[in-house]
Write a structure and sequence with these properties.
Radius of gyration: 16 Å
Structural class: alpha/beta
CATH superfamily: Exopolyphosphatase. Domain 2
Number of domains: 1
CATH architecture: 2-Layer Sandwich
CATH class: Alpha Beta
Number of strands: 6
Strand content: 15-25%
Helix content: 40-55%
Largest sheet: 6 strands, mixed
Distance between the termini: 22 Å
CATH topology: Nucleotidyltransferase, domain 5
Order of helices and strands: HEEEHHEHHEHHHEH
Number of helices: 9
Strand order of the largest sheet: 3-2-1-4-6-5
């Protein structure tokens, strides 16, 4: 059993989205996968030979890392939030030229939980989550009210995945900063991540 590198996860996550019929018409793709210890970013555009990569990077920004660091409090105060945002913005830098993000897709639990919470879903139904979208303003507002809560309050939210109460607020803040860097007005949510692409690759689909 091998351990996938962040860049390999990003590559597989990109393939999962690029091969998804839901995004077949996209000319440009930007994929954000927020994780526990890193966030994977891939941006690409269609060319005559297939997809050409513009950005392929693993950033040392993750929910668990921030929870054990500057956002260690269950409900971080304004100073901690500002520090976290400043640190993330410095790490991300200007990743894109304005208007070049194309179709932005969020992979992982951050995006899926925002959809299940918005739709007040009490059971996991991936077909009702996959392909939904979140506006940038919606993600920003969600980061605010989730950060205002403590772990127990977040755990009581209808639609949250059990166990995500300690990290979801941080994941949403990370997603918001990456969307800001991409100048993306919305992101689509995919339930197909690197595991899906790895399975397709292994069985030759």
């Amino acid at each position: 059993i091998g351990v996938l590198s962040g860049e390999r996860e990003a590559e597989l996550g990109f393939l999962a989205v690029a091969n998804d019929p839901a995004f077949r018409d996209a000319e440009r793709l930007t994929i954000i996968d927020v994780g526990g210890h890193s966030t994977e970013l891939v941006a690409a555009h269609r060319s005559s030979g297939g997809w050409a990569l513009d950005v392929h990077k693993s950033y040392p920004i993750g929910t668990l890392a921030l929870r054990s660091g500057v956002l260690c409090e269950p409900s971080p105060g304004p100073a901690a939030r500002m520090r976290a945002v400043s640190d993330m913005d410095e790490a991300i830098g200007l990743a894109f030229l304005p208007g070049k993000c194309g179709t932005t897709v969020a992979l992982g639990a951050t995006g899926t939980n925002l959809i299940t919470i918005r739709e007040r879903m009490t059971s996991w139904e991936p077909s009702l989550v996959h392909g939904q979208y979140l506006l940038y303003e919606e993600v920003g507002r969600s980061a605010g009210w989730l950060l205002d809560m403590n772990d127990e309050e977040r755990a009581a939210i209808v639609g949250i995945e059990p166990g995500r109460e300690r990290s979801l607020h941080i994941g949403v803040l990370i997603l918001e900063r990456f969307l800001f860097a991409a100048r993306s007005e919305r992101c689509w949510v995919s339930t197909r991540g690197w595991r899906h692409a790895l399975l397709e690759t292994s069985v030759g689909l």
